[in-house]
Design brief:
There is one protein chain. With 209 residues, the chain is an alpha/beta fold. The chain has a single domain, classed as NAD(P)-binding Rossmann-like Domain (Rossmann fold, 3-Layer(aba) Sandwich). It has eight helices and twelve strands. The protein has helices at 10-21, 36-45, 54-59, 70-79, 109-114, 131-135, 153-166, 179-196, and strands at residues 2-6, 25-29, 49-52, 63-66, 87-90, 95-96, 100-101, 121-124, 138-139, 142-143, 145-148, 169-172. A six-stranded parallel β-sheet has the order 3-2-1-4-5-8, sandwiched between helices. Strands 6-7 form a two-stranded antiparallel ribbon. Helix 1 links the parallel strand 1 (2-6) and strand 2. Helix 1 runs parallel beside helix 2 (36-45). Bound molecules: NADP nicotinamide-adenine-dinucleotide phosphate.
Amino acid sequence: MKIAIIGTGQVAAALGRRWANKGHIVTFASREPGAERVLALLEGAGPNASAARVADAAARSSVIVLAVPFTAARERVEMAGDLSGKIVIDCTNPIAPGLRPMFDAGTSGAEQIAARVPRARFVKAFNTTGAENMADPVYDGQPSTMFVCGDDAMAKGAATQLAEELGFEVVDAGGLTAARHLENLALLWIHLANVVGYGRDISFRLLRR
Ligand SMILES: NC(=O)c1ccc[n+]([C@@H]2O[C@H](COP(=O)([O-])OP(=O)(O)OC[C@H]3O[C@@H](n4cnc5c(N)ncnc54)[C@H](OP(=O)(O)O)[C@@H]3O)[C@@H](O)[C@H]2O)c1
């Protein structure tokens, strides 16, 4: 796949490096594509990775991954240009100070962003676990769960394939309104890791009988 990852931080690095090393063509979209830190990121990602400004990265890709702070995400997708028919994977979490959800239970960050790009094929994924688990989701030989939700089957299929390639077991959590639950699950993961004190080497796994 040709993948534009908007962002060059922890999530972008974990996902982009691994996908590029698996043969996908990855373009990191940065506000400063020539910066030292972006060049360092590219070094670890190998020959399939490059960096560009957001509009160029999106134009050359069919899958757009949002890996920026939620507060920047709506603006960044609009800067990406015409996303008609493209797959948009939303990894962001709308977190208010005090580890609270930014929205009430009647909407989600994902639905807010999706409304800005109505012609894109939108899916929520890669938001419910830490970036370290995206680099390595396997614990004692058992895969971590990656929850995926959305209303577009093609987008969900692409997110599922990309998550499985990283070693996740994917659980289809339903339509895009389930992003409300996925975003709360992310809050629980951060609470367990940082507030309760389990640390970031923790991961969710859904068991089914
Ligand atoms: N860290 C995690 O473990 C984790 C896990 C799941 C989900 N998430 C979510 O994924 C998203 C990215 O998280 P992250 O930890 O990778 O973030 P991060 O390390 O802080 O990186 C965010 C990146 O976004 C870009 N960016 C664009 N506009 C920005 C702005 N106005 N302010 C700041 N950065 C801006 C920056 O790249 P340029 O400067 O190159 O443009 C920056 O490298 C967030 O929504 C987060 O809630 C994080």
